[in-house]
Amino acid sequence: MRPVVPYVTAALLFGLGVFGVLRRRNAVLVLMAVELMLNAVNLILVTADTTVRAQLPHAGQVFALFVIVLAAAEIGVGLAIVLQLYRLRASVAVDEVPLTEPSALVPVGAPLAARAAGESTSGGNAAGESRSGGSAAGGTDRPEVER
User: How many CB atoms lie within 10 A of CB 145?
Assistant: First the structure.
């Protein structure tokens, strides 16, 4: 058997997988494209094992088994993430996934709690006075409370 045919087939499969990863917006189709790339790598490993005589016997087939285990783990974790994403967002479009949560960056209740206590978020009190300068009438460090 000529080794050119499996190598060209693997290159086409890998190219199709790269195209699928870069072009698709659906997360499930992106996972399928990654599987195409892993199958292309398996085809190359097995073909190289049968055509090239290395020091270690059947090394390509052993590496192909490791790639199969890696692909199974990737599908298990990837599908779990996609299902959780669908439950939270009702969509599995990859370009609509936020990379950071806005609630994790800014506490939701902090600005409202500061306003309820009569303080602004800039450090002064409700009348716009600074905490370090004191008030104009008393000269104390504590802000005055309006009644």
Answer: 9
Closest CA to 9 of 34, 37, 40: 40
* C-alpha pair distances (Å), 122 with each of 118, 131, 134, 142, 143: 12, 10, 16, 16, 14
Alpha helices in the chain (DSSP H): 4-23, 27-51, 59-89, 102-105, 110-116
Indicate the SS3 state at residue 125.
strand
Give the mean model confidence (pLDDT) for residues 119-147.
53
What pTM was computed for the model? 0.61
Task: Answer whether 15's CB lies under 8 Å from 55's CB.
Answer: no
Q: In 3D, which of 71, 75, 39, 35 has the Cα closest to residue 83?
A: 75
Tens of pLDDT along 36-74? 999 999 999 888 888 887 677 788 888 889 999 999 999
Bridge partner list, 41: none
DSSP state of 144: P
The three-class DSSP label of residue 130 is coil
